[in-house]
Amino acid sequence: MLLTYLVERFDKSGHVKTRIKKLKTKIALLNF
């Protein structure tokens, strides 16, 4: 996925990845 690739390239510190992970967890919890 292009977006994942861009995040990998530009998110050196890992902040965005952590936010996305938290967001996905939130969405997963809301879906139940």
Amino-to-carboxy terminus distance: 26 Å
The run of helices and strands is: HH
Low-confidence stretches: none
State the domain count. Answer: 1
Structural class: mainly alpha
The residue fraction in helices comes out at over 70%
Radius of gyration: 11 Å
What is the 3D form?
elongated
The total of beta strands comes to: 0
How many helix segments?
2
- Major beta sheet, specifics? none
Tell me the strand percentage band. under 5%
How would you state the average pLDDT, rounded?
Answer: 83
Give a summary of the structure in a few sentences.
The protein is mainly α and about 30 residues long. Helix content is about 80%, strand content about 0%.
Task: Provide tags for this entry.
single chain, 32 residues, mainly alpha, 2 helices, 81% helix, 0% strand, elongated
Characterization of the model:
This protein has one domain. The protein is built from 2 helices and no strands. The protein has helices at residues 2-10, 15-31. The longest helix has 17 residues, at 15-31.
What is this structure's SSE topology?
Layout: H1 2-10, H2 15-31
